């Protein structure tokens, strides 16, 4: 079984039925990333220039015919040049400016009809208004991710495309904090459901999945 296969144990993740306070047994201090504010934007931009390199296959026959472009799989969007300009009338809010660098893969057809790909980089300058906490020992971070897709474009000069594309940007104000949360305790992890029966290890002493401790106050 698993958390969700033939498992009715109440100590498992899933929807809360009845009184959600039932079963809360402790206050847990966890280290986590807290999101203080976030926003998402979407825009269609034209006239985007994408110089292309790293052709695959190499040395395509020119000119090239544009097919599409999108984020490069497995490559991360990076954020740089972050500026937090607090608004004087409401100092907990700020104009947050930054630059995003998006790795892009361009798909094309060469003059011999061979479909290939090349890589490029898209730079986006953004400025948004967000809630930004005051400085503390735990630093505040501005993080962002972006999605770029395009199906309209043309080969305008050697190894260069000019395209129109949709850009979606998600911006967050975060900080790594210690957060006190109510807890139902540890979950009960069920045994895996395998396609074929397996034999348990004879004489094996099961080690607890999670550490336990009896807490008492120091005098």
Structure description:
By secondary structure, the chain is an all-beta fold. The chain has a domain at 37-178. Helices cover 0% and strands 57% of the residues. The chain contains no helices and 8 strands. It has strands at residues 26-51, 53-56, 65-71, 78-87, 90-109, 115-131, 141-157, 160-183. Strands 1, 2, 3, 4, 5, 6, 7 and 8 form an 8-stranded antiparallel β-sheet that branches. The radius of gyration is 26 Å and the shape is flat. The model has no long low-confidence stretch (mean pLDDT 90).
Largest sheet: 8 strands, antiparallel
Structural class category: mainly beta
General form: flat
Q: Runs with pLDDT <50, length 5+?
A: none
Helix-strand sequence: EEEEEEEE
User: What's the β-strand tally?
Assistant: 8
Helix content: under 10%
Distance between the termini: 46 Å
* Residues in β-strands, percent: over 45%
Gyration radius, rounded: 26 Å
**Overall mean pLDDT score?**
90
State the helix count: 0
């Amino acid at each position: 079984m698993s958390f969700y296969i033939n498992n009715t144990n109440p100590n498992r993740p899933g929807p809360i039925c009845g009184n959600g306070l039932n079963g809360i047994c402790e206050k847990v201090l966890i280290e986590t990333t807290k999101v203080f504010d976030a926003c998402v934007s979407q825009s269609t931009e034209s006239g985007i220039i994408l110089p292309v390199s790293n052709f695959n296959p190499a040395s395509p026959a020119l000119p090239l015919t544009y097919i599409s472009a999108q984020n490069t799989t497995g490559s991360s969007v990076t954020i740089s040049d972050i500026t937090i300009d607090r608004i004087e009338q409401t100092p907990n809010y700020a104009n947050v400016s930054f630059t995003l660098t998006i790795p892009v893969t361009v798909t094309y057809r060469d003059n011999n009809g061979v479909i290939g790909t090349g890589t490029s980089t898209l730079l986006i300058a953004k400025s948004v208004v967000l809630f930004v906490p005051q400085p503390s020992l735990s630093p505040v971070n501005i993080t962002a991710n972006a999605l770029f897709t395009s199906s309209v474009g043309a080969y305008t000069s050697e190894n260069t495309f000019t395209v129109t594309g949709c850009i979606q940007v998600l911006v967050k104000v975060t900080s790594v904090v210690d957060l006190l949360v109510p807890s139902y305790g540890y979950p009960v992890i069920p045994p895996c459901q395998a396609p074929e029966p397996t034999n348990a290890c004879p004489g094996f002493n099961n080690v607890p999945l999670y550490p336990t401790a009896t807490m008492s106050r120091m005098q």
